[in-house]
Specification:
The protein has helices spanning 16-29, 42-45, 49-56, 65-82, 94-103, 116-126, 149-157, 172-181, 212-219, and strands at 3-6, 13-14, 89-90, 107-111, 134-136, 165-169, 185-188, 204-206. The protein is of the alpha/beta class. Helix 1 (16-29) crosses helix 3, helix 1 (16-29) packs across helix 4 (65-82) and helix 3 crosses helix 4. It is elongated and about 55 Å long.
Amino acid sequence: MKTVIFDLDGTLADTSGDLIAAANHCFRAMGEGDVLDAEADAGTALRGGRAMLTAGLPRLGRTDLERTIDQYYPVLIEAYGDAIDVHTQMYPRAMEAVEHLKSGGYGVGICTNKPERLAETLLQRLGVREAFASRVGADTLPVRKPDPEPLYEAVRRAGGDPARAALIGDSDTDRNTARAARVPCVLVTFGPAGGDMAALQPEGLLQDFADLPALVDRLLA
């Protein structure tokens, strides 16, 4: 079976607002104010909790980055889990595209570098978990993206063939994962990660989820 695997953060949903809020919770716990900005730092948010702490601490003049990040990363994860869907929204027409793919005979799944527990919680809260036949997170396997094995596992759990799959993402991590797996990659151009997605030379660029089914049909023909 042909399979389409989606990244989660910045691809299916804009999670940056809740991620930024969790990081700012940490900075307030340090006795500081909100250090990260929901708009200006949205791209950093999609690189994960450690990336947000790494970006914010130097703005406070902190130089003990590694020790402080190790100390506050669990605090960030707990805060994020407590308020995981306050600002997060699915991108327009994302789920319509997923259902269109399924009706066309494709398997669909998720491969994310968000911890498995948080990915499951978020999908359940958004009411979309049942739409996906598989969900592989950062800690589901001993390795994470850009290693190709999580992608392969997401395909297999969806009942598909890793040789007949495509990955939909929003970052160089997704591009490198697809390249390592030797499958086509489609990168969205509307996510907070921003930047020039075309420069990553994916097999496809997506400006609107309404265009995804036809693009996947072409790539996996």
